[in-house]
Amino acid sequence: MVRFFPTLYILLLHGFLGVDTDEVPVSVMEGDSVTLHTGVKENQQGRIKWYFNGFRIAQITGDLSFICTDVQCNEGTERFRDRLKLDHQTGSLTIMNINTTDSGLYKLEILSSSSISEKIFNVSVCGVSAVETNGVKMNSAKEGEYIILDTGEIIDRNDLLMWYFNGIRLAYISGGPEIWKSPRRFSNRLELDRQTGSLSITNSKSTDSGVYKLEITNSSSNNPLLTIISSRVKTFHVTVSGVQDSGLSSAAVAGICVAVVLLFCCDCSCSNLLLLQE
């Protein structure tokens, strides 16, 4: 019995605290932004802390009396300087312009007066080519050409994909069978790949030029009291140039016609003059 009570105490303590150490895998491309969501709608009185490989990188209290990120939280370490954003309502953490050295374990800790909830995000950052630095992928095309905005992803059944064009929702794929595409501006010129989420634009026009953003959200919950969601954003800058008319302008055509008529008249005059001389 002496050995039983400490074991029972530990089991009860674990259940009471609600500690959940399951890892949520998150994959993101270098230069993109990723948001690690707490699943909390509004932080009331608790404290939310974020750790990266054991070092505290962000913290916020429910009454907003204490907020810190990156260098303010970890004694001057500048790994994340100006690249962390903390949502003041939910405590969700956004990492901007992420790079490969940011790969690792991110631990979320939510403390209240009666419980502690923890979650670990295992973030993997993949390197990209030079044209994809700073999270912006450049795409150029001529009017009429086929444009593919390739996500480089394989969609999970829990993923929700939202495409935006200049801030306006353009298309989405949810976990169910439905796919929605805007029927207006693009007049049925959009194609959406269900497996990858890649967006294709057929018969492109110069008015299709602009910024396209893809938001990928994945939900994972092993704790019914706490839903953890991770999301990441990909940005594409599309430029569609007009096709130059290789033909002649109407003024040039008119000028050529006048020149031909004048030459014809001159030729006729010369022929008549020769006949008179004979």
From TrEMBL:
Statement: the UniProt record of this protein carries the keyword Signal: yes
SUPFAM superfamilies (UniProt xref): Immunoglobulin (SSF48726)
Signal peptide residues on this chain, from the entry's feature table: 1-21
Domain Ig-like: 6-124
The keyword Amino-acid biosynthesis belongs to this UniProt entry's keyword annotation: no
A Pfam family assignment: V-set
UniProtKB keywords: Signal
Name the record gives this protein: Ig-like domain-containing protein
The organism's taxonomic lineage, starting at the top: Eukaryota, Metazoa, Chordata, Craniata, Vertebrata
